[in-house]
Amino acid sequence: MRLTAPYHPQNKHEGTILSPLRRIALADRWLWAVLLGVMGLGAYAYSRQWIFGMGVTGLNRPVYWGVYITNFVFFIGLAHSGTFISAILRLAGAEWRKPLTRAAEAITLFSLPFGVASILIDMGRPDRALNVIFYGRFQSPLLWDFTAVSLYLFSSVVFFYLSLLPDIALCRDRLTESPLWQRRTYELLALGWRGRPEQFHRLERVLDGMAIFMTMLVVTVHTVVSWVFGMTVQPGWHTALIGPFFLLGAIFSGTAAVVIVLAILRRVYHMEEVLTVSLFNSLRKLLIVFTLGWFYMIVAEHLTQFYGSLPEEMEVFWQKFTGEFALLFWLMFLTVFVLPLIIFVFLGKNRIGWMVTASVLVNVGMWLERYIVIVPTETRPRLISTLMEGMGNYQPTWVEGAITAALFAGLVLLYAVFTRLFPIVPIWETAEVVEAEAPPVQPRRRVFGAGRAR
Fold this sequence. Notes:
Layout: H1 14-18, H2 26-52, H3 67-78, H4 80-91, H5 101-122, H6 130-135, H7 141-174, H8 180-190, H9 197-230, H10 242-268, H11 277-308, H12 311-321, H13 326-347, H14 352-379, H15 384-389, H16 398-419
Helix pairs in contact: 2-16, 3-5, 3-10, 3-14, 4-5, 4-9, 4-10, 5-7, 5-16, 7-8, 7-9, 9-10, 10-11, 10-14, 11-13, 12-13, 13-14
């Protein structure tokens, strides 16, 4: 059977989008070397933890979860950015999201493995993770968590790959001057895609169906992550609000991370005409809503605890507001709510620098928020024997800090390498050509990526 010539919808910004793929600059190599060095330091720190045991960390009894589990919740939260922008906004018909989708999906894809790695690092015996598979019981929220995150990782890979497929084929046909290994990679990953109109129609239908599934999954995943805490009877965790609170925080931090990434891509790869100021303004409006939503959730949670005034709950409550963790708590409140809201409302419109500043503050604050949720409860547990021995205490060590830095360096490294191998802005979804310009297969016209006939 004779294949037709490859057909690609034309995008006036195609040259700009493909420009980062044509060569790897010296600055890229230096960046990758620095990130690999940070990862090497983390590997050394983990080797000490492996040899000498968990005693090299600040973890102890009763604080058995600390920085590592904070990282786990944070990375899983970042992973909600791609699903929110690509799936939920796709279903909502938000056409402005199209240039942002792949950048957000890449955050999802590269955050999830480091979230899983945080769990394994937290285990003194990582090999015992296999016990979840062989001896797991579905009565345990830990198995719910394992199942949900695994399904989310697999589904995100499929969703990401399918949306990337037409642009891989475009790279195969356009980047003929690339090294042989790169051209062979494109040819292999393109799976024979020819870009025929019926293929685009089929792909749109599949992505629409997966968007519905991913929307349901994103709600499930972080709710289940929160249930690892909420299904216990520990003070501060055992609340019905913890599921929606975690979910809103995940989408909040993920969307803020998208703003940071887009601003860096816009500056480094000179994509001012592709990633326009109006896109950042649209994200700014979403972030204002999420900021107010987060404020509502934190007031509802702590006001309920205060009026209940259960002794065990109040022990944790006052440690956050006026006690040992007060500095971190109020710093978190300042960086998640007060400063970002002022910037988003009064300074952020048409000013990308201010948007990035607020988004960095949000992610710093959301990491602190996860820490504040986890550690104070463990230092004030509902165990009489522990209380008789004295309150718990936790001070992270350099080992935990080095491993945390290595995890974030790994995320940045994977993202940086990806942007040099594949288009970070979806060319086919942002194309302006109509179907009538291609070999006609149906009596109607359709804008590629627009998701509706006209």
